[in-house]
Amino acid sequence: MTITASVDDTIQQITEGASDGATCAPELAAGPWVFDLQPPSYGPGASMGDVIPTGSPRQGQLPAAYRDASGDELHRRIVAAKQTLGDRVVILGHFYQRDEVVQHADYIGDSFQLANAAKARTEAEAIVFCGVHFMAETADLLSGPEQAVILPNLAAGCSMADMADIDQVEEAWEALEALYGTEPDADGRVPVVPVTYMNSSAALKGFCGRHGGIVCTSSNAETVLRWAFERGQRVLFFPDQHLGRNTAKKLGVPLEHMPMWNPNRPLGGNQATDLEQAEVILWHGFCSVHKRFTVDQIDRARAQHPGVRVIVHPECPMAVVDAADEAGSTDYIQKAIAAAPDGTTFAIGTEINMVQRLAAQYPQHTIFCLDDVICPCSTMYRIHPGYLAWVLEGLVAGEVLNRITVSDDVAVPARLSLERMLAAKPPVAAGTQAG
Ligand code: SF4
C-alpha cells in the first residue's frame, strides 16, 4: 500500500466529505492562525484540551498576505526566499512535521539529530526549526552564539514537555529531599538522580545539570537509566511516564517500585512508605499522540494482516509496548523498515506524518499506522507553510522573527546535562571489545 496524499490533503478531503476516512478533529483543516489568537491552548487534535502554561510565548497574528495565500503561492515564495538566502539559512524538519513544510527542509530527523545537524552548519546565520518549542531551545543550546534559531510559529509547543514545568519540578525535588535527605549511601550513591527526556524545556535540562542529573532520548533511555543507577539510589524521571516505565521495566525494575508523581498532589499523591521502596519515580506526563495507540489496534492489525510486524514508539503505554513485536525510537523504526526484506508488512505506532512518509519512501513494503484515525501531532502541525514563508521572507528583508534564545544561567547547566548524556556509554556486550 503506497500512500501519496499528504496528511494535510487527507484531512482537507475528510472535512469536505470527499473521503470516508476519519480525523481526530476536523478543525485541523483550518489554518492554525484561527486558533493562535485564542486563549492559550493547543486546540484541535490535542487531547484533554491541553493548556499552554502561562508565560509561554504567544504567537501574534500572521499577516494577511500569508494567511490568504494559496498553497502553491506559499510554496513558490518559500523556494524563492530560500534561494535568495542560500547558505545563510538552514531549515530543519522534524519527522512528524507536515509534508508541505518538510519538503523545504535541509535536514529531516528527530530533535537531537536536527540540533546536531544545525551545529555542523556553522556558516548559517539562521536556523529555522520546523518542530516544536523545546526542539528550538535545544538547537539554541547546541548552536553558535551568533546563530539565530527561529521557530516559525511560537504556538508550536509540545503538550508533553509542558506537563512538567520548572516550578513543579523544583517543588517535587524539595519534597523528595525532605523525605530522603541529601547524603549519599555507603556506595556513594545519592538519594535521587533527576533524568529528563529530551522532550522537555531547557529549564528542566538546566535543573538536571544543576542536580547531578542527565538528559535522555528515546534511543538511549536504557543507557542513561543505567548511568543514573550507578550514581543514585533512585531516579526521578520526567516528563514522560511511559518512556520511563517502559525503559525501567526492561531493566527489571518491578512496577510496584515505580510510583507516579502527580505534581498537583502532596507528595505527588503517594504515601511516604510507598516512596521508600521507589526505584523510579515517574512524572505524570504523556504524549497526546502516542497515548492514542491501543492493544485493540494491534489485535486488529494482526487479524487483518497475518504476519504483520508491529513496531511502536516507547512513548506508547506499557500494554501497547508489551503487545507489539518491537518498540523503538523514530530512528529505530526507520532503520528497521530500511533493513527489512521486500514485501514486509508493518503496522507502526507513531505519528501519522512520519508513517505516511515511510510508506511513500518504501513502496516495496506495506506500511500503515496502527491508528486509522488521522491525528497528527497537532502542536507541530501549527507550523503551517504560511509561517515558514513569513519567517524566511523576514530574513530576506533583514528581520529575525520568532527567535528562540535560552539565557546563559539556564544554558550552561542544560549543556552539562546534555554532555553527560553524550558521555554515557552502553555496557559492552559479552564477546565484543570496546574500540
Ligand atoms: S508527538 Fe508528542 S512528544 Fe512529540 S512533539 Fe508532539 S506532543 Fe510532543
UniProtKB/TrEMBL annotation:
Taxonomy, superkingdom: Bacteria
Cofactor or coenzyme needed: [4Fe-4S] cluster
GO CC annotations, alphabetized: cytosol
Bound cofactor: record note: Binds 1 [4Fe-4S] cluster per subunit.
A Pfam family: NadA
Keywords from the named record: 4Fe-4S, Cytoplasm, Iron, Iron-sulfur, Metal-binding, Pyridine nucleotide biosynthesis, Transferase
Binding site for [4Fe-4S] cluster: 158, 287, 377
GO biological process: 'de novo' NAD+ biosynthetic process from L-aspartate
Family recorded in the similarity comment: Belongs to the quinolinate synthase family. Type 3 subfamily.
Protein's UniProt name: Quinolinate synthase
Gene this protein is translated from: nadA
